[in-house]
Amino acid sequence: MILAVLSALAEPTRLEAMRRLADGSEHCVSELTRKLGATQSRMLRHMQVLRQAGLVLGRREVRWVRYRINPELSPSLACLVEAALDRQVMVTERTA
Hints:
This protein has one domain: Winged helix-like DNA-binding domain superfamily/Winged helix DNA-binding domain (Arc Repressor Mutant, subunit A, Orthogonal Bundle), CATH 1.10.10.
């Protein structure tokens, strides 16, 4: 799993998408496309990679999918993401 996370964060567009999502709100692909200057198909692929790595969750809202950082990242993954983004991410505490 750690390899998938590192690989997902290694791509500049995905890393910048994660920075945008780190504000704690949800963003749709069209927003991210506009802000990051990527094509819609490319941005969809980037979000799929982030979702497969377990970093983001998508919520369907009519014809849009709104993405946010997975609030249930393990503490070690949350620290890794925070280090990569150089900012704190919104995650929930997990009880053992």
